[in-house]
Amino acid sequence: MERILVFCAHPDDEIIGVGGTLAKYAQEKKKVTVVIFSSGENFPFWLKKEHTIKEREKETKKAGQILGVHETIFLGLRDLSLKDDLNKKEVFSKVVAIIKKIKPHQIFTHYPGDVFFNHDAVGKFILKAIKKANYTKAIYMFKVWNPFYFGKRQNPKLIIDISSMFVKKIKALDVYESQKLVIYMLYPFIFFKAVFEGIKYKTKYVETFLRYG
Fold this sequence. Notes:
With 213 residues, the protein is α/β, with parallel strands linked by helices. It has helices at 13-27, 49-67, 82-85, 89-102, 117-132, 166-174, 180-200, and strands at residues 3-8, 31-38, 71-77, 106-110, 138-142, 158-161, 206-211. Helix content is 46%, strand content 19%.
């Protein structure tokens, strides 16, 4: 069975960046594991962090069931101190151990250069971790807040037709009630990017990724 491993900074990043692809892979009987570094407990800021953590983890598991995710691993790092926590040896060792244990055929993670600093930090962290884990297979990168790729070197290297999975992707995204405000802001970009890429590749909806290396 082909194994897919996804690393993302916060719950819902995996849906926004790679949700349609994960649903398609799960339908194809590929085993999908998602690793989330932080629960993003600082938003909504008016709620207690403990409440937000529980809610977001619950939402992530429900969204994962919709997509067909086999397992979700929460690392529990601090949202506002994520970059500091990524420098801890025990965190690095844990992520390397996950890669070695799962032995994925493909890894998906944030694009180093995403405008959100935590996304950028996770992307760079994973590139270090795969070297330590001696991982030599495909690693693909996605953007969340700056969704388009510009320049010759940033031509997509993996193009996935998610036309049959787009409704499922949006259904999974709608699960995140705690993040309604942010997600509503992102909906136009999510739709426009999927449609824009779909037109380019002569289908309805598409997700595209850059390949590292």
